Automatic annotation (TrEMBL):
<keyword id="KW-0350">Heme biosynthesis</keyword>
<comment type="pathway">
    <text>Porphyrin-containing compound metabolism; protoheme biosynthesis.</text>
</comment>
<dbReference type="InterPro" id="IPR002937">
    <property type="entry name" value="Amino_oxidase"/>
</dbReference>
<dbReference type="InterPro" id="IPR050464">
    <property type="entry name" value="Zeta_carotene_desat/Oxidored"/>
</dbReference>
<dbReference type="InterPro" id="IPR036188">
    <property type="entry name" value="FAD/NAD-bd_sf"/>
</dbReference>
<keyword id="KW-0963">Cytoplasm</keyword>
<keyword id="KW-0274">FAD</keyword>
<comment type="similarity">
    <text>Belongs to the protoporphyrinogen/coproporphyrinogen oxidase family. Coproporphyrinogen III oxidase subfamily.</text>
</comment>
<keyword id="KW-0285">Flavoprotein</keyword>
<dbReference type="InterPro" id="IPR004572">
    <property type="entry name" value="Protoporphyrinogen_oxidase"/>
</dbReference>
<comment type="function">
    <text>Involved in coproporphyrin-dependent heme b biosynthesis. Catalyzes the oxidation of coproporphyrinogen III to coproporphyrin III.</text>
</comment>
<dbReference type="Pfam" id="PF01593">
    <property type="entry name" value="Amino_oxidase"/>
</dbReference>
<protein>
    <recommendedName>
        <fullName>Coproporphyrinogen III oxidase</fullName>
        <ecNumber>1.3.3.15</ecNumber>
    </recommendedName>
</protein>
<feature type="domain" description="Amine oxidase">
    <location>
        <begin position="14"/>
        <end position="461"/>
    </location>
</feature>
<keyword id="KW-0560">Oxidoreductase</keyword>
């Protein structure tokens, strides 16, 4: 009688859960899948909470509707697979602003993560350096070249475009700085265009053309009732055994598979499995791989992360602008780097009692010390800084919540993708039944993490099928 195959998914974030669902869909029905989650909560950065008797996201807020290739994103495909398509809702207010010295200024259109495709459209916010983006007779980047976003944009458009547009856009997503972040990882479509086009303007326009969007087509979506519905549905569809509060401390080869050491040092549990999807951040993954795959561990172990805090406030009948929110350039000097007017942006969240839900994001890479303040101090700073940006005192909140995400956002320096390719190549050569998945390797955002987990699952299935022949 054939022995039942067992697969361990280490990490219960959306990448790990997407891997578990794909394993269930594609592998034999008798496959045993176990998800090991170190904390007591599944979903990673997807966490819906409650504030003033209403739902609010304490983590990721939404997902992209489309893939860079033009089709629906992996997140939307997963939502459909889980029977949740009827819950998808879109922003009812899409215009955001920049917090400048003179007040709020609408973010100009026609940009790609802040990089302009039409210099005239950004003139009200930033003055591009004239005639700097000249055709030098060849592509901006070599075939395999990567570069920091800030280095490229500063050389072509000048400092103001980076400091007032690109940096706050990237800071809102990655909590990092444009001068440190990899173009190939954070803006892959632009990086590909820059390897063909001779000017940055041409590269931006080519990147925009490569991912056309119909007029009025929504960019973002979320789920009515909260993204935790996606987590619960993925758990149910996977049919996996869920082990919460179960830290995997060691990973060692065992026969043709793997032995996991789970739990506290005083009372370890040893579990033998045929394959492993390692869907945890890069540094914990590197520690687990240090002895069994040192080359892979070295490639991924240097990835650093930024910490952030999300402060949500319920405000009684505040005077808010008709905006989805605003971004704050680091040069403005505020602790708040972004704010979302939830009940303005998302029509399904608007309330009849006049309460408005506002969420601010705090924390840039390297400024972790600023986040060590008590919750009440962070909430007071947010209230004060939001009032200053809006030009009038906001009413006192009737409820608030501070969600801290320590080491949440990967900081992809130039060459990141090459390091990940090297790590995965080393794993494939030595350990075909061990795969990496998650934001630490492929990028942030729900669609990317879903696709990363699904790809790892597909490769595990192929490896198991190969070992059975």
């Amino acid at each position: 009688m054939a022995t039942r195959r067992r697969v361990a998914v280490v990490g219960g974030g959306i990448a790990g859960l997407a891997a578990a669902v794909r394993l269930r869909d594609r592998a034999p029905a008798d496959l045993d899948i176990t998800v090991y989650e170190q904390s007591g909560v599944l979903g990673g950065k997807l966490r819906t909470g409650e504030l003033a008797d209403g739902p609010v996201e304490f983590g990721a807020e939404s997902f992209l509707m489309r893939d860079p290739s033009g089709g629906e994103s992996a997140a939307v495909a997963l939502v459909r697979r889980l029977g949740l398509a009827g819950r998808i809702v879109h922003p009812t207010v899409g215009q955001a602003a920049l917090a400048m010295a003179g007040g709020l200024c609408p973010i100009p259109g026609g940009t790609l993560v802040g990089v302009p495709g039409d210099l005239a459209k950004v003139a009200a916010v930033a003055r591009p350096v004239p005639d700097a983006d000249r055709d030098g007779g060849g592509p901006l980047l070599g075939p395999d070249q990567d570069i920091a976003v800030g280095a490229l944009v500063r050389a072509r458009f000048g400092d103001e475009v980076v400091d007032r547009l690109v940096d706050p856009m990237l800071g809102g997503v990655y909590a990092g700085r444009a001068d440190d972040l990899s173009l190939a990882t954070t803006m892959p479509t632009l990086a590909r265009a820059a390897r063909e086009e001779h000017t940055l303007l041409a590269a931006v326009r080519a990147a925009q053309t490569a991912t056309p969007r119909a007029p009025g087509e929504p960019v973002f979506g979320t789920l009515d009732g909260g993204l935790s519905h996606l987590v619960a549905a993925a758990v149910a569809a996977s049919g996996a055994t869920i082990r919460s509060n179960a830290a995997v401390r060691e990973l060692t080869p065992s026969g043709t598979g793997w032995r996991l050491t789970v739990g506290p040092t005083r009372a370890p549990e040893h579990v033998d499995v045929d394959a492993v999807v390692l869907a945890v951040p890069a540094r914990p993954a590197a520690r687990l791989l240090a002895d069994v795959a040192p080359e892979a561990a070295q490639e991924i172990g240097g990835l650093d992360y930024a910490s952030v805090a999300l402060v949500s406030l319920a405000l009684p009948e505040p005077a808010l602008p008709e905006l989805s929110g605003f971004l704050v350039p680091a040069t403005v000097g505020l602790l708040v780097k972004a704010a979302t007017f939830f009940t303005t942006k998302w029509g399904h969240l608007r309330r009849s009692d006049g309460l408005a839900l506002v969420r601010a994001s705090l924390g840039r890479y390297g400024d972790e010390e600023q986040l060590q303040r008590p919750d009440e101090d962070l909430a007071a700073i947010v209230h004060r800084e939001l009032s200053a940006v809006l030009g009038a005192p906001l009413p006192a909140p009737v409820a608030g919540h501070v969600q801290r995400w320590g080491g949440a956002l990967p900081q992809y320096t130039p060459g990141h993708l090459d390091r990940v390719v090297a790590a995965r190549s080393a794993l494939r050569a030595a350990h075909p039944t061990l795969r990496l998945a998650g934001a630490g390797y492929d990028g942030v955002g729900i669609p990317i993490c879903v696709r990363s987990g699904e790809t790892a699952a597909e490769e595990i299935i192929t490896a198991l099928e190969g070992s059975a022949t």
